[in-house]
Design brief:
7-stranded parallel β-sheet; two-stranded parallel ribbon; 13 strands
Length: 333
């Protein structure tokens, strides 16, 4: 019997490639990647090179290929997006993050194909409305994203909930509000890499690393708090959802515990066996009024539905990332 197919858009990217790796392990699915590999000197193609994917689709052929294989597709895991919070072209962000997501949703709804998609903690804005992953229209409407990226994800969450209320939804759908995810396969992301990846070259060399100075009197320098979540944990949530076809909604994907950037930097030094050396620099003025000083995912809702996966402690996640990947001579082999 020919296996059913799972299509992962953005499947060569950071989160997408880790999903692909786990799906390929069991061999139960034909795993298809839809993505652009960009320039050959970036690591993006390496993210998927060692995994036995069934096919690789260019984004411009996505819907033709979906139609061609409609009778075999079990689910679309839609991770493809512009993830830069500083991208200046709002129209480009909306076309990529909202319009494309809407079209994939509509296709899945008509074809009776399940859909899991990437939302974002950026939908919560400054956190004034809290970080509870309620997905009723009133709660979603109360959120105030701080940038166009967060708005694009907020807009699609609203669309998904509205369509589901109208019974115009895929048979299972789930949006995941990713918090600050870190781990292997983010080398292609440039300035959008996790802080662990960005400071690693200096940590490895035993040099001083720079973190943003706080411009909020309620937080010390380096004391800005984020929900840092290890990549294996968010992939675990997605695999669980693929097993639980009865569960739909918008859910947080975080660790459930806010930690400081200074904690993260110290954990990186510790993983390298070096004493921490941290200096603080002014935050660029362009992002000061859009900066989140605190994020912390409430994970109660998904756990109440039966998700039993445990969050990897920050120090353990950073140790695994550094020692098993960043510090390796050729981590992609």
């Amino acid at each position: 019997m020919i296996p059913r197919m799972i299509v992962v858009t953005g499947g060569a990217g950071f989160i997408g490639s880790n999903i692909v790796a786990r799906l390929c392990e069991g061999g139960a699915w034909d795993v298809v990647v839809c993505d652009r590999l960009e320039t050959a000197d970036l690591a993006k193609w390496k993210n998927i090179a060692k995994h036995p994917i069934a096919d690789l689709w260019a984004p411009e052929e996505l819907f033709d290929q979906l139609e061609r294989h409609a009778d075999r597709i079990e689910a679309v895991v839609h991770m493809g997006a512009i993830s830069s919070t500083t991208e200046p072209d709002a129209d480009l962000i909306l076309r990529t993050n909202f319009s494309l997501s809407r079209d994939i949703w509509d296709w899945c709804a008509v074809r009776n194909v399940r859909m899991i998609y990437a939302s974002s903690a950026a939908t919560y804005g400054d956190g004034e409305a809290g970080f509870e992953d309620r997905d009723d229209p009133e709660s979603l409407n109360a959120l105030r994203p701080l940038n166009a990226y967060g708005y694009s994800k907020y807009l699609f969450d609203q669309y998904a909930v509205r369509q589901a209320d109208r019974d115009e939804a895929p048979p299972q759908w789930a949006g995941l509000k990713f918090f600050n995810v870190y781990g292997p396969n983010e080398g292609h992301k440039g300035g959008m890499k996790s802080v662990v990846a960005q400071i690693w070259p200096k940590v490895q060399a035993g040099e001083t690393v720079s973190l943003f100075r706080s411009h909020n009197p309620n937080y010390p320098d380096g004391g800005q708090l984020r929900d840092f979540v290890f990549i294996d944990d968010v992939v675990g949530i997605i695999l669980w959802l693929l097993e639980r076809q009865d569960i739909s909604g918008v859910f947080n994907a975080g660790s459930g515990q806010a930690r400081s950037f200074a904690d993260l930097a110290r954990a990186t030094f510790a993983a390298a066996g070096k004493e921490p050396s941290i200096a603080y620099v002014d935050m660029p003025e362009a992002i000061r009024d859009r900066y989140q000083y605190f994020t912390e995912a409430s994970m109660d809702r998904i756990r109440a539905l039966g998700y039993g996966g445990q969050s990897t402690p920050l120090e353990e996640g950073v140790r695994r990332y550094v020692q098993d990947f960043l510090a390796q001579p050729d981590p992609y082999r």
